[in-house]
Amino acid sequence: MVAIIVLTLCEHFMIIFSTNLGDFTVELEMERAPVSSKNFLKYCQEGFYEGTIFHRVIKGFMVQGGGLTAKMKEKPTRDPIANEANKGLKNEIGTLAMARTDAPHSATGQFFINVANNDFLDHTGTTNAGWGYAVFAKVTAGMDVIQQMERVKTTTVAGHEDVPREPIIVEKVTIVDESSVA
């Protein structure tokens, strides 16, 4: 039993996103959303998010990124993951959730940050409409940067709505394993 606790403590990651608007830090929910957290962490480790943009910004709702370049080209991803929205985590202000298509188990690399309490995105059942969006992390520092993102002016680009007029670019992603700091 002690070994299990030690293993859990070793899986505490903080991820710092440096953008052209400033930095924000997220903490993964490795215990409650392990599939989504490990998927996101792997994309971070591979440098996938560097050079991507926050391509969808809706004031009072969310900011979405993690898959498109500044030229609105979609980056190739790994296979979709299982939806973990049924794990009890809620789409509350400052949480990160996996973006997906209408298919419940279609999330790959894109994610969004809730800028409001979006309980209508939470899991309500195992039907297509009820699956919800899997929360896997929360912003622990830099929420002011997210709020700044939320306020940018948007337009439509190449069929994509709510695109920031000036690109919000992820310049660098830094992973901190807090167990190695302690």
From TrEMBL:
PPIases accelerate the folding of proteins. It catalyzes the cis-trans isomerization of proline imidic peptide bonds in oligopeptides. Coiled coil: none annotated. Its EC number is 5.2.1.8. Belongs to the cyclophilin-type PPIase family. The keyword Isomerase applies. Keywords: Isomerase, Rotamase. Pfam families: Pro_isomerase. This is Peptidyl-prolyl cis-trans isomerase. It catalyses: [protein]-peptidylproline (omega=180) = [protein]-peptidylproline (omega=0). It comes from the Bacteria. Residues 14-175 form the PPIase cyclophilin-type domain. One of its GO terms (molecular function) is isomerase activity. Gene3D superfamilies: Cyclophilin-like.
